[in-house]
Amino acid sequence: QVQLVESGGGLVQAGGSLRLSCAASGRTFSSYAMGWFRQAPGKEREFVAAISWSGPTTYYTDSVTGRFTISRDNARNTVYLRMNRLKPEDTAVYYCASGRIPYSVPSHRHYDYDYWGQGTQVTVSS
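Structure (tokenized):
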């Protein structure tokens, strides 16, 4: 049974930083691309960042490029999202997701991911 458990969310002032973590179990973590998505109240879930199974290839949505960094530690079965210079518009529930197909390229499409965590709330105050 695959499980993804996010942590690290919270309340932060604009301009601050947070690091989200997603611990994975139940499959060979190092074989799959991983992604972060977010969903704000009243909005659809949107792509934030993704990383290849081996780590060197990353992919970001335009609004977070230069502020957020995705990384992974395959020895710890964990993917991270470092978020700097946070803005109120970054407020959302953040979800990690595991790629559907082993050794595939990282994707911004939600249907390319088959397992999702429960989410962690990030709130940025102005």
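The CA atoms of residues 70 and 81 lie 5 Å apart. The chain has no helices and eleven strands.
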